[in-house]
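Comment thread on ticket #2218

A.B. wrote:
> Attaching the input chain for the structure job we discussed in standup.
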Amino acid sequence: MPKQTTTTMLLIVLASTLAGSVLAADNRISADLESVDVIHNGQTVTIQRGHDRDATLPAMFQKTDRGCPPFCVQPIVALPGIGTIGELEVLDYLRRKSQGDDSILVVDSRTPDWVMRGTIPGAINIPWNRISSDAAGTFETPEQADAFRQILADEFDGTYDAESDSWDFTDAKTLVLFCNGLWCGQSTENIKTLVDLGYPLHKLKWYRGGMQDWVSVGLTTVKP
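C.D. wrote:
> Ran it. Output below, let me know if you need it in another format.
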């Protein structure tokens, strides 16, 4: 192969490699954060932003008119004392949990049909309607009440006192809850239920932007 041709090919390969590097560097999550490794279903998943400059939102998040109720715009604060957080804070909670912090749980409050279309890596799905009722007997069946109490105890680490019929959340996990977006009231409904039961305000965090904001900035999603 002529020397000039070889040099030309090397230059093309080098230019392509550099272009890829520049593209990756040009689409970091933040100025000092390129990616975050989390554990999802026992596997390591790298959360990063996409590099397709022509990418668009999935069709399910392109609608602007959904009808209120039930799809009403949520306030910036779910309840006084509840922290509203964004993508970087969610990533930090996911990173800490994946590094062994068992005091954190990131909860996708949506129903399974939505989760099947994609969720945040590292989140677990607890459908909002499984913890949307209070503990005063507003469940349709005893089985629903039992399932609710099981979630509070086994997933959230609450302690039930049968004698006083009350919950102790002193050692409960910090919960980061989200649903489809600022027009989705499912996670806020869960937050209100938990607060009514006595869940500490500082242990409840709300990702208001939810899945719509997550995909709008090109962050990695996974399907069950």
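A.B. wrote:
> Thanks. Noting for the ticket: The mean pLDDT is 88.
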